[in-house]
Amino acid sequence: xxxxxxxxxxxxxxxxxxxxxxxxxxxxxxxxxxxxxxxxxxxxxxxxxxxxxxxxxxxxxxxxxxxxxxxxxxxxxxxxxxxxxxxxxxxxxxxxxxxxxxxxxxxxxxxxxxxxxxx
Length: 119
Fold this sequence. Notes:
Blueprint: E1 2-3, E2 9-10, E3 33-39, E4 42-48, H1 50-66, H2 87-96, H3 109-118
Antiparallel strand pairs: 1-2, 3-4
Helix pairs in contact: 2-3
């Protein structure tokens, strides 16, 4: 606290910042999942709740069932900075899963693959 000339006291103020991920589909709070997918050679990212992720998977299931699964994106169809998770997000997810994660340097490809398989 600090005192003014008139004897009044000012209390120090603190800000508390709360970060919430909002569902891109219905604007509900606490979107728990980031879904990255591609349609017609365009990549998309959605932050969604459990219910909306399940709805998306259900809607895509008939198409996924008959589609050819590729081991990786075809040449020229890689993730870009605009649609990829940040290293910090991947590291935080890995730690939450109980995995060993380095604090610095390049994020291992194994961890990146596990992250995208889970999301």
